[in-house]
Amino acid sequence: MAIVIRNSIQEITLQLLQYIHSATAKSGSCGVILAPCAKTNPKTLEQAKGLMSKNDASLSVQLFYDDPNQVLCAVLDGGTLGSTHYASLVLKDFLQPQHLLQGHLIVSSFPESAKPTESAIAAFLQQAILSKGNEDDIRFYTAAHAETSVLLADPDDLVREFIKIRLDLKGYRVYEAKDGQEAYEEFVRRLPDLVITELNLPIMDGYQLIRSIQRHDSYEGKVIVLTDKQLSENRSRAYESGAADYVTKPLSISELEWKIKRLTSNS
């Protein structure tokens, strides 16, 4: 008689796969939220489920807690990436005041973001588990761009937040910096596939940042300038410093997304 030995990751992976396959067979799509959490009781799960269901009555919500890996799993029948993102905001607001959330909420949808395979679900779970100890934030898992990372340098918090949300939804991994020095330190640490920078940066301006990046021997990525400087001399100076493209504000997010896709595809 053969004995099959599975570890805790395999067990929860297969359990999630069953939920997802059942939901997609019935509704065509399925949203999933994974949240590293302190141990939750059935009453807490029911309260969270009630809030999420009230937020979007069109979705059927199933919640369960994986004790070995300490991950709260929410499965939304019929959930798209957008509706699952909104549901994750509700879940986050519920978990944080009770000090239950212990890392990032990881959001995905199937088959929109990835094919529901065992390897994809295992990678999804690993992303949630490895986020333990990090700040309470919402991140996206999308297999299509799992290897594409973007560093965004801009002193304006609202600009960074807007772009980050849009790129997160597209599946890119986004890192942020509010000044040139922080941006360069993040660049050295992460070596992202693409850098998007404002020219008006504190401490180290955008031109200096681009030149510092271009001097990094092992870097093969690209830099897009996103700035309110619209003069031709600024554009020329940016290209001379090593920028691959130049986008002016006010921002056209569709134009920026197209340029990102073009440059990262070429890379």
TrEMBL record:
Is Metal-binding found in the keyword set?
no
- Record keyword Flavoprotein present: no
In Gene Ontology terms, what is one molecular function of this protein? Answer: transcription cis-regulatory region binding
Q: Which GO terms describe its cellular component?
A: cytosol; protein-DNA complex
Name the PROSITE patterns on file: RESPONSE_REGULATORY
Q: Which UniProt keywords apply?
A: DNA-binding, Phosphoprotein, Transcription, Transcription regulation, Two-component regulatory system
- Please provide the Gene Ontology terms (biological process) for this protein: regulation of DNA-templated transcription
Domain Response regulatory stretches: 149-264
SUPFAM superfamilies to which the protein is assigned, alphabetical = CheY-like (SSF52172)
Any matching Pfam family: Response_reg
InterPro entries associated with the record: CheY-like_superfamily, Sig_transdc_resp-reg_receiver, WalR-like
Q: List the protein's name.
A: Response regulator
What is the native source organism of this protein? Cohnella terricola
